[in-house]
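Hi all, posting the design record for the shared folder.

TITLE: backbone redesign
STEP: 1 of 1
STRUCTURE INPUT:
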């Protein structure tokens, strides 16, 4: 199967976004930058960044500076599975700075790209064989923006004998 590389359409901030994501995730690098030539259909001047190929922890991405006609929406998001609250906090605060917090662990970064910052413990609680416990965890999550693992645990245990 061929490797799938998400292509992210930016107005003019592809290089800035790639550098930002690399700084947030720590394990990444710019792989290459292509520039527009004279008379590009984007309307950007010759020499402007057209695409940035970059990698985050082994996953390749392409950032395209294509102009303002397309923007991101919540219809596509990237999920970040987090091992603990410290990871949740790191990604939440770094990615939401200059962006917008959403419900249930969702946020938009300063470029408008949607992310889901999800602690692994939330998924474990949601799949607990005790369906009432699982539902209490889901109900608690539905009231949160940034997911609070300790609060999920308290809510899930609330009905325990």
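Okay, here is what came back for every position:
SEQUENCE:
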């Amino acid at each position: 199967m061929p490797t799938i590389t998400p292509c992210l359409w930016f107005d003019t901030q592809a290089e800035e976004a790639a550098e930002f994501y690399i700084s947030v995730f720590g394990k990444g690098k710019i792989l290459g930058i292509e520039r527009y030539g004279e008379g590009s259909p984007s309307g950007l001047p010759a020499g402007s960044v057209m695409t940035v190929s970059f990698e985050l922890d082994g996953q390749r991405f392409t950032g395209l500076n294509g102009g303002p006609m397309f923007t991101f929406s919540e219809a596509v998001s990237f999920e970040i599975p987090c091992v603990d609250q410290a990871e949740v906090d790191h990604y939440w605060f770094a990615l939401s700075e200059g962006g917008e917090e959403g419900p249930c662990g969702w946020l938009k970064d300063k470029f408008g790209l949607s992310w889901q910052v999800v602690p692994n413990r939330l998924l474990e609680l949601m799949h607990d064989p005790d369906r009432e416990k699982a539902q209490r965890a889901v109900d608690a999550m539905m009231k949160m923006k940034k997911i609070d693992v300790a609060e999920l645990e308290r809510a899930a245990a609330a009905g325990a004998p």
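COMMENT: The longest strand covers residues 28-35.
Let me know if anyone wants the other runs.
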